[in-house]
Design brief:
This protein has 319 residues and is α+β, with helices and mostly antiparallel strands. It contains 9 helices and 9 strands. A hairpin with a 2-residue loop joins strand 4 and strand 5. Helix 4 packs parallel to helix 7, helix 5 runs parallel beside helix 9 and helix 7 runs antiparallel to helix 9. The model has no long low-confidence stretch (mean pLDDT 96).
Length: 319
């Protein structure tokens, strides 16, 4: 298969900038991104913009517009989300132009930082709960568990000698996920950032700002919170308490969703393997994930899933 970015040459990137009304000076820098292609482009006036080229056939034009409309809605309410300044199509690629925003990874060991981030996620969710996405998908057991598992099985990515162990681990893990969702009472779906890990939160002296709403979708509020947690159970409980303290300044948190922390982590693990598999024909993926196509990778995933099965059987975190 021809990989989707074979035609995205530097000339195409610069021409897209010109089509958007910019005046590139010829310099560009590829930024770290696998799902899409993202470049910093310098302009003749010495400033720079960020151009993001969407992976073809992943999102429809309407789904991309929903992402951008959500980002602009948040920005208009003075929530620090980096929203696109221009959306267009050039040479068969849908792309967006963003202002360049710097920052560093937030210090999640600082309770005040966690509370500050929690306040802004609460504000994002207050807006996100006001109405649903019409076109973007939902995060649930089917989309992040059953479908990725089926894809991996259908395309023979799991080594034959590990297949039965992996099938058993994923089947038992998804049963645990379903139980957690049932216990949480079918948590309400709202518009989410969707991929709110620390790498998508940039910190400056003015506090956090959020980037990359590419994975925005409907789902439970906990999806934007659990990736801020790390360490042992006591550490995660303390971290979550700090986040929720800020969150509840602006949005109500349904404590039934505490049952979803490890369930959502489990879904992400299964979805992540299928995400790499679906992109394996893109040369950037074998280069970035050379260990994916090895028995050791799948052995580690089986062990990881077994650990998650045990974690989902423990009482939820308490805040």
């Amino acid at each position: 298969m021809t990989h989707p970015y074979a035609a995205l040459t530097p000339e195409v990137v610069l021409d897209a900038g010109e089509a958007a009304g910019l005046r590139p000076d010829g310099r560009l820098l590829p930024l770290n991104s696998y799902e899409n292609r993202v470049y910093q482009v310098w302009l003749e006036d010495g400033s720079a913009r960020v151009l993001k080229f969407y992976r073809p056939e992943r999102w429809s034009a309407g789904q991309i517009e929903e992402e951008h409309a959500f980002a602009r809605e948040l920005a208009e309410r003075e929530i620090p989300v980096v929203a696109p300044a221009h959306t267009g199509e050039h040479a068969g690629f849908r792309f967006a132009v963003y202002p360049r925003r710097g920052g560093r990874t937030p210090n999640l060991d600082d309770p005040k930082v966690l509370e500050w981030i929690g306040r802004f996620i609460g504000r994002i969710h207050a807006v996100g709960a006001s109405r649903p996405f019409e076109l973007r998908p939902s995060l649930n057991v089917e989309t992040f568990g059953d479908e990725p598992r089926a894809y991996l099985l259908q395309h023979d990515f799991v080594p034959p000698d590990l297949l039965e162990a992996w099938k058993a681990a994923t089947e038992q893990a998804l049963a645990g996920v379903r139980f957690c969702f049932q216990t949480a009472g079918n948590a309400r779906g709202i518009r989410l950032h969707g991929d709110c890990h620390p790498g998508n939160i940039l910190w400056t002296e003015d506090g956090p700002h959020f980037v990359d709403l590419d994975d925005a979708r409907m789902g439970p509020a906990m999806q934007d919170l659990w990736m801020l947690l790390s360490g042992d159970r006591v550490e995660m409980q303390d971290q979550l308490a700090d986040v929720i303290a800020g969150y509840e300044d602006f949005a109500e948190f349904d404590r039934r969703e505490l049952h979803l922390v490890e369930a959502l982590r489990t879904l992400r693990l299964i979805h992540y393997s299928a995400w790499i598999a679906r992109r394996w024909h893109d040369p950037a993926f074998p280069a970035a994930f050379p260990w994916f196509d090895t028995p050791r990778y799948w052995e580690a995933r089986i062990l990881e899933l077994r650990e998650q099965i045990a974690s989902m059987q423990e009482p939820p975190l308490a805040v």
